[in-house]
Amino acid sequence: MAAAATMTWHEELATLVGETGVRFPGAGGGSAANVAAAVGGGWYRGEEEDGEGRAVEEEGWAQQARGFLESTAEMLRVLGRGLWDIAAQSLAGAEDSELARRLRGPAAAAGKRLSFMNEYLPEDRDPVWCWVVVAAVAFVTLIVLGVGSVDDTPVELPKKLYIGPPSAKTIQLPDGRHLAYKEQGVTADRARFSLIAPHSFLSSRLAGIPGIKPSLLEEFGARLVTYDLPGFGESDPHPGRDLNSSAHDMLHLAGALGIVDKFWVVGYSAGSIHAWSALRHIPDRVAGAAMFAPMANPYDSKMTKEERRKTWERWSTKRKLMHILARRFPALLPLFYHRSFLSGKQGQPESWLSLSLGKKDKTSLESPMFNAFWEKDVAESVRQGDAQPFVEEAVLQVSDWGFSLSDIQMQKREDLSFFELIKSLFCQAEREWVGFLGPIHIWQGMDDRVVPPSVTEYVRRVVPGATVHKLLDEGHFSYFCFCDECHRQIFSTLFGIPQGPINPVPEPIEVASELTEETTVPDKAKEEEQDISDLA
């Protein structure tokens, strides 16, 4: 015990290390004492001898790191194999378990809905293995992007949207809902032309024709009526709405505002689907249509593969994703909406609506006038803070409309006898057209990347009566918004030479009635004198 108590820490370390086979130069052997002396002496240089007694230098940091990574990879590989074996043994015969029976149906349904994505995979590959690889690559990519996007530079926080107090005029529809509207231009009794404009996605009744001058409406005697779609602005929601109900909302609005004659419909961008609906469902009440970059259903069965390809290739990746979600997984849309325009903060239309813009559109959106309009219009659009109306509108754009654009104007089908049918083969007689036969004007910017020109080419093919005005170098916003000269050209095309408002016939005044009575008094006196003379 006394000997143990007198051991230094060098000797204790030597007893723990034992004989390792490491030889230190000048140590005079490989005993534990020499090891302790070497360590305690502070001259250990990390060298060891090979079989012939030559000193071998220690490995560098690069070699050590490489060895560590190789060892880690080997351990992970062995661990993965072990986990795989455990999972395989645990799942053996799991097909007959209660959990598997319950999940089999939903899994099959989900697989069926996702089967369309297998079209993008190589034909000679297993879809399950391919999607596992795609998921892994996507996960790694997101991590890399998240790490690489870290930026310490200060970023200006977006401003909050200001939503003012309610101020809209409303009408009550037959089903009890209230529809908010706005009027511009001349009054109803002086209107030579009446126009109704449903707004586009993420917009409101405040949009109308952005920047149109009241003097221009007065000059042409025009009355412009805009309204909030159900759930937008100050209009009540309408769950389960479709384009047929949208057309009849427009019809009831016209009746409530005293529009007796036919009215024009103005359709801009996504708002054009409601204008198309009016031409289809209430053609007898519509005088004509003015369409600006009108939208068509990108899944319309009448659209050729080439037309569909030209349309989809001009859209951004995010917008394609939003269309796919709206058609197949609409329940996921609120997640995106609440992170963008329903966040209560201001933002730019190209980011919120996933738009790709041309040069002229970017210039238009940078103007202070457009920014002030955009902020006010979006704030009114999201007044109710509910994502459901936006989801319904997005679904309407890509789902079955209940009609095709080719149904708006079509040739009348006639039941011909056998001989008349043979005769028609040799004599091409003109057949009668049915549907909406009024004028349809379409303005299309050739640099529009929101609604590409290929959409208008498709519309022109299926609606042969439409007149297309191609606008070189114009985009989606540059011609329709805040362009006085453009607005004058539009109204001149639609209505011809401006004739001003209608002057209502003045009602008879009291002075005129008094003069009439005075002129009739002498006649009565003469009659009385004549009666007296007859009695005499």
Automatic annotation (TrEMBL):
The keyword Ribosomal protein does not apply. The chain crosses the membrane at residues 128-150. Keywords: Membrane, Transmembrane, Transmembrane helix. Gene3D superfamilies: alpha/beta hydrolase (3.40.50.1820). Residues 512-536 are annotated as: Disordered. It holds the Pfam family Abhydrolase_1. InterPro entries: AB_hydrolase_1, AB_hydrolase_fold. It comes from the Eukaryota. Residues 199-480 form the AB hydrolase-1 domain. PANTHER family: ALPHA_BETA-HYDROLASES SUPERFAMILY PROTEIN (PTHR45763:SF8), HYDROLASE, ALPHA/BETA FOLD FAMILY PROTEIN, EXPRESSED-RELATED (PTHR45763). This is AB hydrolase-1 domain-containing protein. It comes from Oryza glaberrima (African rice). The gene is LOC127767765.
